[in-house]
Write a structure and sequence with these properties.
- With about 525 residues, the chain is of the alpha/beta class.
- It contains 18 helices and 19 strands.
- It has an eleven-stranded mixed sheet with strand order 1-6-7-5-2-8-9-10-13-12-11. The chain has a six-stranded parallel sheet with strand order 16-15-14-17-18-19, with helices on both faces. Strands 3-4 form a two-stranded antiparallel sheet.
- Helix 8 crosses helix 9.
- It binds 6-O-phosphono-beta-D-fructofuranose.
- The site of 6-O-phosphono-beta-D-fructofuranose has 11 residues, from helix 1.
- 6-O-phosphono-beta-D-fructofuranose binds next to helix 1.
């Protein structure tokens, strides 16, 4: 994590420069669990957060100055009294882009039961199709309700009737409902950054009705892919009797809930394309990439980077590398896997167990297959700053993005955007949302260890001409969808047609083992 340059703004003071966004729209009030910065003890000690959601949302304020972003202030307060006190003197700061960050305080108990509990032990596994990993606890639910109400109250204290409120992600699914209960009658949008599972899985959740009703208090609900949107629509229809109305607009299904009409859309998120491309072209990052390559001699670098999470398929990937080396001993010493794992959710036992599994497998595989002067897996358990990350993207011959399930996955897009040299091969799981819009990757089912090993093998041996041809097919879809365009499309739902991004036709899970 790096430190950010920030400008302090007195609590409660809103920068009201809500001047012209490039598309003529005013900046929305964004509400998310995390802010791009944890608001530290003093504004100058604010720490930058990493994560897909904040990385995608931050650039939108460059074209929509004067916005307000409300989220957890990053501190863990000891008790309810300190939360009450913090609410009276809410922390705020302004970024150079003009957006004001406004903090919502959370206590130790909130973190334990809302964030670690309901968000990450119950909702996260269910939304990612792992209901068997879910822990459903009534006290966690009670705390989730309470914290969602707190977020809504902070928004209500600052919103004007003419404001537009954009709520994000699974941590805050009740906020739209509480905003309505609090009397807000203006436009509310909701975006879910995770997958949404089919109704047979979602119905496992004891609070499925409350969650659906919470989200459906919005005017528009958006997802990364048509599959997630349709799963949500099916769940709303079968579990709470909402009536879908299809064909009203391209790429949109409307849901009639009581007397309300809610738009449900599929809008794949984009990345800060310009930021990644300009870093990739910078001499400093290119020099760093050369140093990384030099450290591995003439061996190919196979690169993976993700947050510690069982959805990311990290252990499965390590086992596929082992399988490849055992099946083809001649590959020994010809490549090195550089695997970055960003620490995450260490208070949740499932995540601690997974960290132990990764540590053990890296040690075992290196111990069994390494030789003097070479180990197959180079493991880093820390976050990389963006320059370091792009240098690794440039140094890699192959990027492995092989989650078992992932809402979108921004690493794949970042890798493609960074390859301004049109080099590198992307091995991509068919269970990452982004695989629906990318054509040119080596596509693989990460549950099939043999297929995954074969895909890595094919990527390593791929002739330069084919690598370039594939990267040339990959880049247009990523470059055409910067985060700012994604935001504009989200905020246009229900006001004008969405338009379409080039999509890869859906393919079945079958097909050749090293299917592309
Ligand atoms: O995938 C959705 C998402 O909100 C990401 O944007 C983010 O990286 C992650 O889930 C949540 O991470 P954390 O628990 O660290 O906030």
């Amino acid at each position: 994590m790096s430190r950010g340059r920030v400008v302090a703004a007195p609590a409660g003071e809103r920068t009201l420069v809500r001047s012209g966004a490039s598309d003529g729209a005013a900046a929305p009030i964004v509400v998310s669990n995390r802010l791009p910065y944890d608001l530290g003890a003093s504004p100058t000690s604010a720490r930058r957060n990493v994560g897909g959601l904040v990385n995608a949302l931050e650039p939108i304020f460059a074209t929509r100055p004067g916005g307000l972003w409300i989220g957890w202030d990053g501190r863990t307060l000891p008790n309810a009294r300190s939360v009450e006190q913090a609410l009276r003197q809410a922390r705020a700061m302004s970024l150079p882009s003009g957006v004001t960050l406004c903090g919502v305080p959370l206590s130790e108990r909130d973190i334990a039961r809302y964030y670690n509990g309901l968000c990450n032990r119950a909702l996260w596994p269910v939304l990612h199709d792992f209901p068997g990993r879910g822990v459903f606890d009534g006290d966690d639910w009670e705390r989730y309700v309470r914290v969602n109400r707190r977020f809504a109250d902070v928004v209500l204290a600052r919103a004007k009737p003419s404001d537009r409120i954009w709520v994000h992600d699974y941590q805050l699914m009740l906020v739209p409902r509480f905003l309505r209960d609090g009397g807000f009658a203006g436009r509310i949008d909701f975006f879910l950054h995770t997958p949404f599972p089919p109704p047979e899985i979602f119905r496992v959740l004891p609070w499925r009705r409350e969650i659906l009703e919470g989200v459906l208090a919005s005017d528009a609900v958006a997802f990364h892919t048509p599959r997630y949107r349709d799963n949500f629509v099916d769940s709303a229809e079968t579990l709470i009797g909402a009536a879908p109305s299809r064909g009203v607009a391209p790429d949109r299904v409307d849901l009639i809930v009581g007397t309300a009409r809610v738009h449900a859309a599929a809008i794949p998120i984009g990345i800060d394309v310009e930021g990644f491309q300009s870093l990739a072209r910078s001499p400093a990052v290119q020099a760093r990439a050369r140093r990384i390559r030099a450290a591995h001699g003439d061996r190919s670098i196979v690169f993976g980077a993700e947050r510690l999470d069982y959805t990311k398929g990290i252990v499965e990937r390590l086992l596929a590398v082992e399988r490849l080396l055992r099946a083809h001993p001649s590959l020994s010493e010809s490549f090195a896997v550089v695997q970055v794992v960003v620490p995450s959710r260490h208070a949740v036992e499932e995540y601690r167990r997974m960290k132990r599994d990764i540590d053990r497998e890296v040690g075992r595989i290196n111990g069994e297959l390494g030789v003097d002067g070479w180990e197959p897996i180079h493991y880093r358990y820390r976050a990389l700053d963006r320059g370091e990350l792009v240098a690794h993207y440039l140094a890699a011959s192959v990027a492995l993005v092989t989650p078992l399930r992932d809402g979108m996955n921004l690493v794949a897009s970042e890798f493609v955007a960074s390859r301004v040299d049109e080099g590198g091969v992307l091995v991509l799981s068919e269970f990452a949302g982004v695989s629906d819009i990318l054509d040119g990757a080596v596509r693989v089912n990460p549950n099939d260890s043999q297929a995954l090993a074969a895909a890595i093998h094919a990527a390593l041996l791929m002739p330069v001409r084919e690598r370039t041809a594939r990267m040339r097919r990959l880049r247009p879809a990523v470059l055409a969808n910067p985060a700012t365009a994604w935001a504009a499309r989200c905020l246009a739902v229900g006001t004008r047609p969405l338009g379409r991004l080039a999509a890869v036709p859906a393919r079945g899970a079958g097909g050749p083992r090293n299917a592309t």
